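Example A, followed by Example B.
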Amino acid sequence: MQTDSVLYDYVIVGAGPAGCLLANRLSLNPSHRVLLLEAGGQDNYAWIHVPVGYLYCIGNPRTDWCFKTEAEPGLNGRALNYPRGKVLGGCSSINGMIYMRGQSRDYDAWAAQGNKGWGWKDVLPVFKRSQSHYAGDSDLHGGQGEWRVEQQRLSWTLLDAFREAAAQTGIPSIPDFNGGDNEGCSYFQVNQRRGVRWNASKAFLRPVAQRPNLTVLTHAEVSRIEFENGRASAVLAKVGQQERRLSAKREIILCCGAICSPMLLQRSGIGPRPLLERLGIGVRHELPGVGANLQDHLQLRLIYKVSNGQTLNQMAGSLWGKMNMGLRYAINRSGPLAMAPSQLGAFARSGPEQATANLEYHVQPLSLERFGEPLHRFPAFTASVCDLRPQSRGTVEIRSALADAAPLIRPNYLSHETDLKVAADAIRLTRRIASAPALARFEPVEYLPGASLQTDEELRQAASSIGTTIFHPVGTCKMGQGRDAVVDERLRVHGVTGLRVVDASIMPTITSGNTCSPTVMIAEKAAQMIIEDAIVDDKGISAGTAPLAELAVEPLKGSASR
């Protein structure tokens, strides 16, 4: 094994949304040596950048870890594909590109659990700091950052009718989901730039890749963390075909996501004692919460056949239609190839007992049996609805100490009675929208799960049959205090020095919407805390202390997002 002679200040493991942003912010100080490690390769695969290309990135080992869940009892024993980005940009290179913050109550709940500084009023300025919103600076949005947010470059008559039908059902049309209360219906805003995917690599990494104090290694898979005198001191990684030991003077920061971050901790001897002892891994520090508290949004894909309207099923069903779509994208980056996987969104309450919206709809002018299969030959739309606040909790565990062993992922979907009730209520609400006057001219007919299913028991069984992940796993390295917490409010791993986790795994509870941009916010906030803590550790020895603090929050000059 080769031990690198370079002693880095920060070693960041994982170049997804969090890792790319941290590499940018921490390397702003030229005295910091920063190493960013990514298990995947460069984000130079053409399909990453064409928005519809997610179809060719998910399930592709070039860009996806290609994980699978265990057989899920709540899903009639089905095992699900569980995509996670394995490429520069991480999941932002293969996801649905939807810019969504969630609800103010999400973050206020984090703060109420003892996580000081994580309330809505605290995190809103952090969201704005990295944002490059198409409308510029405002009370709710930032225009000077790097994380580009634009309106979609398309419109569908069928989706407009669905939006009107939602309003007739009590779900108002609103212009923006990101003001703290997202109840309503609107077209999603997306992380695109002029019809091209805008991933975290483009936003945060490429503009600073030439900094002499920043090193980025791809195809670098970390097997475990090493410790010296109780401090996380190095990582062992296979870089290409070479085993290397890479050392950190200040901190090792895990940005591997809700699946890989707990796995790396467990392989390093940090986690539940019974699991580690069963696998013959020495217990470095017992933390029962590592890999627990897994939460995800389970989507129910309701499909309606329609008449008298155009859907993507027809457009993509002919050679001429495909040529036309390609031509539109080539000329002005518009049309179906510029589409995010979901175009229209709606947030609603499953029942009057809900204080705020607890359902999210992703509405699409297309349909298919399951992801990766061809579109149906008949015209149809899909109204996919998910429970934003699931009560079911799952786990992520390693199978062995070997880095190349696939994880045991058990989301435990629909294992809580409340989740089953919300699922049945969500199907009923969707049916009310589909039967509203605004959609009558399209004569919608329920194809999936089937209008004959009416009782609570039938609808619960239907949810088990059609439910699938919407790719939002979080929570497996929970932020907080107590026996089940893994990191504190500054994202430092409990009981270990020099080690943090900065990604979606730290969420105590899942946010009410898509999880990529909350992860960017988490990293932006973490960057400031990491630099502040470094100043404290140095006891203010640097004459450049004040400028360093300013660098932590200043948007990158000359960013490609401007």
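Example B, a separate protein, is given below in the same form.
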Amino acid sequence: MPDLYAVVLGLLILLPLLGNIFFPYLWLDLVFLFRTICSGYRCYKYIQRNPSFALLDIFLAKVQKHPEKPLILFREEVYSYREIDQRSSQAARVFQSHVGLKEGDTVAVFLENVPAYIWVWFGLEKIGCTMACVNYNIRSKSLLHVLSSCEAKVLLTTPDFQAAIEDVLPTLKKEGIQVFYLSDDSPTKGVQALLGHIKCSSPEPVPVSCRSSLSPKSPSLYIFTSGTTGLPKAAIITRRKLLLVSAMYRLCGVCPKDIIYVPLPMYHSAALLIAIGGCLEVGATFVLRSKFSASHFWDDCRRYHVTVIQYVGEMMRYLCNSPKKDNDRDHSVRIAIGNGMRMEVWKEFLRRFGFIQIYEFYGATEGNVGFINYTGKVGAVGKTNYLHKKMTMFQLIKYDVDQDEAVRDEKGNCIPVVAGETGLLVAKITEVTPFVGYAGDREKTEKKILRDVLKKGDCYFNTGDLLMQDREGFLYFQDRVGDTFRWKGENVATTEVESVLAGLDFIQEVNVYGVPVPGHEGKIGMAAVRLKEGLTFDGKKLYEHVKASMPNYAVPRFIRLRDTLEITGTFKQCKGQLVKEGFNPSVIRDPLYFLDDLEKCYTPMTQQIWDSIAEKKLKL
């Protein structure tokens, strides 16, 4: 009998050891699965309420629970939950009485990172209006397009953007779009200043009846994302999706006592939906910075006692490339949540700044699928298992990059890849995992739907991203497909850039694509150009044209002159080989030009410039 006890005791000791060897992530898988189920159930209960519960209601519940708790720390200013609630009620009343907004209207917000972004958002939520988050870098044609696509009735901005507003104001007036400055005074004729009216308005709660007809499927936000159709598309963020996305912080272990640092622009889903939405969902505090600054980042973290940071990969690279300091590890940050971090940056970040739990995630603003790397395994964008895959119903399918289309078998079905093989990520569209699409044009939405994937009649959301899944269930981002690349944390639509370049009189044909840069995140813009017969390349004219027409992150840094631009049998431009050849002058025999900001001109690309970029001596 003692021998039997010894055997049983030995097995009990051995089982955890064997589990760690053969199932090293089992416990983490179970914990994360439990959190996911609890989060899903919580969201389900919110949605089933009558009227349904929204993120606004969660915020209002937090106001009742801890009204004086700081919600926003901005420079020297502190805004409590109660103050943001009251200011949003004041704004809601002015939006109704003075501006004339009614339930269902859309208001475009053209603001930098300022506290007003939050109380304007909730003010609009309180009267059932949708907020369109406009990238403050866009101008002219792109600005008019985004306002038109979401059918905005009103544009809210500040005098900081006076030049951009006055440039399009005649067109806005013609289209019946009202423009207001969130300021005490207006420097522009025909644009009213709204802040004085808001300050004088009543801070009392806004009746729920003002938003009584809203449902979980009602749009709360429009987040603009670039894609293969060229100009920005208005991704519809419903009240239901906002609840689901804002739950990510709770999944990653963020709690009410945390202080979250948000240096990313709030027109991005990473900042507004995930970071600020997540902060509101758990009832925490966030630090808002106007713009990201590598030199001030850790000083801010120390000053505000930050415990959670929201990142994009490019931001982390900047931090790793900043001058080393003796106090690099002197901070309180325990969690970093974000996406797009390269493996070498990840390793350097941990080595330099100490142990921080990194939750790298994958997800598209408009998508119906997402992953979180909850184990901290370097390089992975997420982890999945049998049960998770059953719930999300995603597939990695074979994709022909050169033909820019999914590979199908003799029956016409797509072909799933095996573990370790790169494939196109697609996710099944169902009632539980819907794809709502984009505002303004059904055609744009349809282009993101892949049909007859595994069987006749099924529908999947096409992410446009190539991923690889290993045998342990870890997912790794490989590349983007089609006509979009990412630079400086922004999506760049090649067709939009092509349309700008094609407007020059000496350009006959243009093919824009993204190329990788040694030591940098994402891909930088490059254009292969065919000149009109008899005309010459004008680097200064091109420089002035692109700088005036598009944001800096979208401007092509390199120009390659070609006698011909190859196309496929279906008349699509060939980009694959051009991307592979990059911008190295020792490889390319075509004339190459480099965007030189000092000379304000595209100048001939040299080996010296290439070496400076490769050695990170030249800033891009």
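On Example B: The chain has four domains: 81-240, 247-366, 367-480, 484-614.
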